[in-house]
Amino acid sequence: MPSVTSSAAPVQAGTARRDAWTVILCWITVMLEGYDLVVLGAIIPTLLKTHHLGMTAGDATTIATLSLVGVAIGAVCVGPMADWLGRRRLLIWSVLLFSVFTFLVPFADSVTMFAVLRLIAGLGLGACMPVSLTMMSEHMPASLRARASTLTMTGYHTGAVITSLLALQVTDNWKVLFYVGGVAGLVVAGIQWFRLPESEAFVRAKQTTGSQRVPFTELLKPAYLRAGLGIWAASFMGLLLVYGLNTWLPKLMNEAGYPVPTAVTQLLVLNVGGVVGLVLAGFVADRRGIKGTALGWFGVSVVMLACLSIKVESDILLNVVIFLTGVFVFSAQVLVYAYVTNFYPASVRGTALGSASGIGRIGSIVGPTITGALVTAGIGHPWGFYFFAAVAVFGFLAVLTLPRRAENAQTEGAEPVV
Q1: 349 — phi, psi (to 5°)?
Q2: pLDDT, tens digit, for every residue of 108-142?
């Protein structure tokens, strides 16, 4: 017996180290994505004020849109590839891609080149989140899947907070933000190469199903179709809100009469609320059910977004509303991802998360585009917030259509979605 105990201890210690590296590196990857994707929203007021490269509000909208087009393409493509080639390899190459092209952005000598670099960086960015969420969920028991998703996504908003803080410090020297993001990503990719293990759930699934590529059409089978439609619609609405707010909130609040430093600070407050909301949402969803929690979160989001359309004189009251908006809007979207990780088996989980992220990214393109059009027309405030509130209503309705449990026996012993 002593020999069994002594031999088991190193195995358990090794497993713990593998899990720790997975958690740390996936969280940091999502943090870098949050940093990189929010950086454009933080510097848009400065780019427009200084007329960098002759940039106009229309140009900024185009750049933001193309960035998210790249993200959408990356997210859709990476899901099936991650279920085919493995999570680890895809994540490392994705981090390398967005890091290199993020670093190159300050060297752009035209608006077109600026947009192209952001488009290519977006391809890598889009791949990072679904792969990171997949790996994290596969290292957690089914009863903690919601918490795995929401805690991973605190990295996104931590990155956004870091961007906001740095933007306040560097003011017009915005190029520093891209240098920092690019170098940090390259360092992380190097650590991932040596320390990031492959997902054991992926390895087991491949041993069972072989090396065949999982087609997207697998998600259209009767067992998955109803859930898929609701997930795609909810993800579309959720990501529209996340990216619309993170890209244009400083400009919308500036239009409402707040000075630029105050408007950027409000972006910081929004994302601090996002971090708090994610931690809270994960605990509530694992206890009360993912679907019911997501419904509640989308419902409160409607109210908070409508409140932002009202200009208030009290800075304290305004920051409270913005904080609560971050608490509920950002975690409502992540609860959709949590639902995906709990509903689908490992053999199609990467494809399912990639499709949810990729199709949802269409919303992330629509949100900044429509909001940018409202800003260009001079009616960003309050109509931008009326638009966001209506989108949250549709998100609520999409979640309402989701089934509460999987209708097949392929969930690897996962607990029913309730």
Answers
A1: -65, -45
A2: 999 999 999 999 998 888 888 888 887 887 777 66
**How buried is 280 (Cβ within 10 angstroms: 0-12 exposed, 13-18 middle, 19+ buried)?**
middle
Counting the structural domains of the chain, the total is 1
> Can you give the residue range of the structural domain that contains 162?
2-400
Q: Which CATH number is 200's domain given?
A: 1.20.1250.20
Model confidence at 80, pLDDT cuts 50, 70, 90, reads: low
In tens, the pLDDT along 199-218 reads 766 667 666 655 555 666 77
Q: What is the CA radius of gyration of the chain?
A: 21
Whole-angstrom distance, CA of residue 63 vs CA of residue 121: 12
Q: What is the distance between the alpha carbons of residues 217 and 219, in angstroms, rounded to a whole number?
A: 5
Tell me the C-alpha distance between 138 and 152, whole Å.
12
How many other CB atoms sit within 10 Å of the CB of residue 323? 19
Q: Do residues 119 and 304 make contact, with C-beta atoms less than 8 angstroms apart?
A: no
- CA gap 310, 314 in Å, rounded: 12
What pTM, to 2 d.p., does this model score? 0.74
Which of 15, 14, 33 shows the shortest CA–CA distance to 243? 33
